[in-house]
Amino acid sequence: MPISKGKHLPQVPFFSQAADMQTYLQQPATTKCSNGEGLLLTLSSSAWRIAFRPYTNSHSRTSLFVIGVEGTIGINYGTVADNLPPPVQVARFLLESTFISRVRLFDANPEILKAFARTGIAVTVNVPNDLIPHLLKLSFARQWVEYNVLPHVPATNIVRILVGNEVISTANKLLIGSLVPAMETLHAAIVERSLDRLIQISTPHSLGILASSSPPSTGKFRPGYDIHILKPLLDFLRATNSPFMINPYPFFGSSENTLDYALFRPNPGVFDENTRLTYTNMLDAQLDAVYSALKLLDFEDIEIVIAETGWPSKGDPGQAGVDAESAAEYNRKLMQHVMSGVGTPLMPHRTFETYIFALFNEDLKPGPACERNFGLFKPNMTPVYDIGILRPTVANAANAAVPVTDHGHTNSRTYLLILVYVCLMCL
C-alpha cells in the first residue's frame, strides 16, 4: 500500500546520481543588495524581497505540547486567520483550561512571546524560510538572536529554534544549500550567549524527502539530498542532541478503502516481506520508512519527532472520512499510540514527541476546504471536538456539544493517561 509522502506534494527535483545534486547546488545564483532594509535575491527567473524583521506573519504557525505520561503531545497553533483571539487570551486559555505545557511558534512574533512570559510554558520559535540565506553570516545570526531571543529570556522559556519548514520540498537551491550552514551559524550565535544547553536547533521535513517508502523497510532519502544535505544535517543534529523532525499526514495518503488503516481501526494490516512485520496503521509505516532511511545512513540513533499530523473535521463534498468524528478518532488514537510506549514494528518500546495540527480552524488558508478545518478549537476557543486535552471542569462544560465517542464507546484511556500525568505533576 502506498504511503503518503506528507501534507504537501513533494516539489523537489529527483536526482539519479549524487553528483547531479552537487552540480545543481553549485550553479551560480546572483544577488543584489538594495539600499533599503532588505536584500533582493535573484535566482533563475525568481526574485524574493527578503527584509530583515523580527518575525513574519504571512504563514505563521504555532504549536504547543501536552506532556504525556511517557511521551510528549503537541498541537500546531496556526494563525492564518482574521478572527483569532489575541495571544494573551490564548496563553491564558492554554495555561488555565488545558494540560498544555509547551508552545511551538512558527515565527518569533514578539507579541506571542511576551504573552507566554512567566507562564512556565516552554516555547519553540522559528526562523522563516526567506531568512535562511541571511543566517550564513554570523553577524546576522547574532542580530536575529538579539532581536528574537534575548529580549524574552528568561521570562519566556524558549527551548527550541526551528530553521525553516520543509525547506527541501521548496526546490529552491539557494535555501536548500544554505540550510545546514545556516543552522550551524545560528548555533554558534547561541553558543556565544551560553544558550546552547537550553535551546535546540532543528528543521522539519515533509515526507517528500523520501525516494522510497513502501514497504517501510525500503525507506531511503532522495539521491543527492541524502549525501550532500541530509547527512551533514544529521551530523549536526547528533552533535547538538537535537531531533529529526517530520510532517507525516495519513489523511492525505488515505482513500475510502484505506480509512481503517489510516484511522487506527481494526484492519487486516500491511505485510512487509523484507522484515516479516505487519503494519496495522499508516502512521507506523511512515515512521518506519523514515527510520529505515536514517539507518541506511547510520543515523538510527537520532530521535524522530512528529512535527505535524492531523485530520480535518470538514472538507469538500464527497471527501471520505472528513468529519468531526473521524478527526476526533484519529487524534485521540494518535495520542494513545505515541504515548503508549508500544512504538512501531521497527522501533518497539518507544514514544514520540508529536504535534497535532492544529489548535484553531484558519479561515484564510488557501486550498480545499479541509485546509481551513484542521482545528481542535473554534476562534472563540470552544472545542470543535474533544480529544481529552481540556482540564476536567472545562471538559465537563463542553462534552454535551462535541463528539466524545469512538463508534458509540467512550474512550477512557486518554483521560486516564492525563489523570496520571496531573497526579505526577502534583507530587
TrEMBL record:
Biological process according to GO: carbohydrate metabolic process; defense response
Membrane topology: Lipid-anchor; GPI-anchor
InterPro entries per record: GH, Glyco_hydro_17, Glyco_hydro_17_plant
Mitochondrion is among the record's keywords: no
Primary location class: membrane
Catalytic activity: Hydrolysis of (1->3)-beta-D-glucosidic linkages in (1->3)-beta-D-glucans
GO cellular component: plasma membrane; side of membrane
Enzyme class: hydrolase
UniProt name for this protein: glucan endo-1,3-beta-D-glucosidase
UniProt xrefs under PANTHER family: GLUCAN ENDO-1,3-BETA-GLUCOSIDASE BG1-RELATED-RELATED
GO molecular function: glucan endo-1,3-beta-D-glucosidase activity
